[in-house]
Predict the structure.
Amino acid sequence: MIITKKERRLRRAAKSRARIRALPVARLSVHRTTNHIYAQITDSQGARVIAAASTVQDAVIEGLQHTGNVEAAKAVGRAIATRAKAAGVTQVAFDRSGFRYHGRVKALADAAREAGLEF
């Protein structure tokens, strides 16, 4: 049986999410495609979305030329941090959804930290 790239990513995601569920903090989850990057913050039970930002929103991509690069990920990180702080959330657990922590995922996390989120 051949394990696909997506199955490996989902297996990594399941392991990290099991650890995050034990924490009593909100979760910042990230999903990326080749053209876009999405981020949302859910409460500790995972039942309610507190804040969301992505490169499909006009307010986030204002002034950007492309939506699938590091600069766009930084814009999403800043946007999710400001929206989370407006909702009263300052501390989150970072859920990278099985994506490796480099490139756009790392840029989003660094921008969110610089904008005031703690994780």
